[in-house]
Amino acid sequence: MTSPANAQSEYPARLRLALRRALALLQRHLFLLKASWPRFIELFFWPVLGMLITGYMSLYVSGKAASLSFLPSFLIGAVILWTFTARSATGMLVLLMEEYWSRNLAHLFVTPMRPLEYIVGLLCLCALRTGFAALLCALVAALVFDFNLLELGLPMAGFIFNLLMSGWWLGLLLLSMMLRFGQASEWLGWYGAFLMEPIVGVYYPVTVLPQWIQHVSRFLPPTYAFEGMRAVFAHEPLPGGLFWHAFALNAVYLVVGGAFFLLAFRRARVRGGLLNVGE
Fold first, then answer.
1. How far is CA 135 from CA 116, 138, 139, 200, in A?
2. Using an 8 Å Cβ cutoff, are 187 and 97 in contact?
3. How far is the C-alpha of 239 from the C-alpha of 88, rounded, in Å?
4. 79 in the Ramachandran plot: left (φ > 0), alpha (ψ -120 to 50) or beta?
5. What was the pLDDT predicted at 279?
6. In the chain, alpha helices (H)
7. DSSP label at 198?
8. Is 274 helix (H, G, I), strand (E, B) or coil?
């Protein structure tokens, strides 16, 4: 039996060992941060994103304080519409990650399925999943906040379709990144859609952004959808050409996204990336 004196003398040694184990765990995760830049980005991505959105929203509200009776409805509508892009893009990433997690990617393409057929299947499945999520959001908004998305009229149907297309090409680019760099890029994939959120004016017009960011936002199709939505809520004339401008950009980006995916898939197949799906 250990005497009280021996137990007391062993206490500092046990404390030092416990501290060393805790420091070893800390060191392990610091090494992970050093070796994986997506993990490092995750440290500040969400705080900075929240700060930018809140800051630009404050600028918008302060400049329009006298005429923002439509703001509550607009914010609810913005959340629902943004679902079509964000959920569509991240949904495609989840579908690919499920093949990684189950180690089924190579087995899937042992079948006669071609990459283009896989893309079409993903797009259809993501459209169904995203539509269900957006419908649920619209139902909650109607029951809780008395917000009817159908009151926005037929133009919103066109803009919703454009937002869905934006999620498609963005999702294809994220899948291409996953095939090219492997699961190490998974962290960055989750941020892909949200990188656009402060730039395309989901909750505020792009005119509150710095001039150089406004030039970038004009090349992103969701910008035109949210500009159109603001015009509808404010009972202003809908600027002509918004739908077709967004559609043309989406069509080009969808072709580019598909080409990147097919190229990344071909390279992954050559280097055995479809088989090496472990951590």
1. 29, 5, 6, 23
2. no
3. 26
4. alpha
5. 47
6. 4-35, 37-63, 71-101, 105-110, 115-145, 154-181, 186-191, 211-217, 222-233, 242-270
7. T
8. coil
The DSSP code for 218 is T
Token duo for residue 71 = 């703001």
How many whole angstroms separate alpha carbon 72 and alpha carbon 107? 49
The number of residues making up the chain comes to 279
Residue with tokens 């070796």: 35
- pLDDT 10s digits, 164-222: 899 899 988 888 888 877 766 666 667 777 788 888 888 888 888 888 888 898 899 99
* Residue showing tokens 């991505």: 45
Cα distances from 51 to residues 42, 47, 145, in angstroms, run 15, 6, 26
Q: Where are the beta strands (DSSP E) in 60-195?
A: none
Amino acid at 272: G
Contacts of 123 (CB under 8 A, 6+ apart): 168
Query: How far apart, in Å, do the first and last CA atoms of the chain sit?
Result: 47
Please tell me what DSSP assigns to residue 139.
Answer: H
